[in-house]
Write a structure and sequence with these properties.
By secondary structure, the protein is α+β, with helices and mostly antiparallel strands. Strands 3-1-9-5-7 form a 5-stranded mixed beta sheet, covered by helices on one side. A 4-stranded antiparallel beta sheet has the order 2-4-8-6, with no helix packed on it. The protein has 2 helices and 9 strands. The longest helix has 42 residues, at 2-43. The protein has helices at residues 2-43, 177-186; strands spanning 67-75, 83-85, 89-92, 98-105, 112-121, 129-134, 140-142, 147-156, 166-175. The N and C termini lie far apart (63 Å). Helix content is 27%, strand content 33%. It has 2 domains: 1-43; 50-177, Ctag/Cox11 (Ctag/Cox11 (Pfam 04442), Sandwich).
């Protein structure tokens, strides 16, 4: 009897420890996403760019320096239309306000809603790229068969480190129509 009580007590302690570990791991995993976003925003890791417009004008123009900004686009899962930059690369002076257009198309016979996610390489450059207007700030609706021009206005901070002579801005576009429809269908009306 003593052995079965001892075994039962050990099993209960083990179960209790495993439950505590499972809850702790779930809490840690849940906290990682906002923690990761904060770290990326602060450090520029993973090339995350700000998702809001920078309304401040550049402090100065660095006329004796040019930086190459390259643009890469790709379609995310479920996106079938074209998504291209008007120019694959531009040369800019740090502090120079620059307009670049992108084009997206919807070959489907129904409207779609898209969201574009940016990334900058090298990651260190992300904190020096300031967008004053970007199609990536908001979801974009593309009508059936539509080809849409989507502008992006940016400048590079004059404090961009000298060793960064080229940076690449990559966008992945996703069809988020089903997710947006799901959110709208789940909205509680008063």
């Amino acid at each position: 009897m003593s052995d079965s009580n001892s075994l039962e007590a050990r099993n209960k302690r083990t179960l209790k420890k495993l439950t505590i570990w499972a809850v702790a791991m779930f809490g840690f995993a849940f906290a990682m996403v906002p923690f990761y976003n904060v770290i990326c925003d602060i450090t520029g890791l993973n090339g995350k760019t700000s998702s809001t417009a920078n309304t401040e004008a550049p402090s100065r123009l660095v006329e004796d320096r040019k930086v190459v900004v390259e643009f890469i686009t790709q379609n995310g899962t479920g996106m079938n239309g074209d998504f291209l930059p008007a120019s694959r690369r531009v040369e800019v002076h740090p502090g120079e306000i620059t307009l670049v257009n992108f084009y997206a198309s919807n070959p489907k016979s129904s409207n779609i809603v898209t969201q574009s996610i940016p990334s900058v390489s090298p990651g260190e450059a992300a904190r020096y790229l300031h967008k004053t207007q970007c199609f990536c700030f908001d979801q974009q609706t593309l009508a059936a068969g539509e080809r849409k021009e989507m502008p992006m206005i940016f400048y590079l901070d004059p404090e961009l480190p000298r060793h960064i002579n080229t940076l690449t801005l990559s966008y992945t576009i996703f069809d988020v129509t089903d997710r947006v429809a799901g959110i709208n269908n789940n909205t509680v009306l008063d």
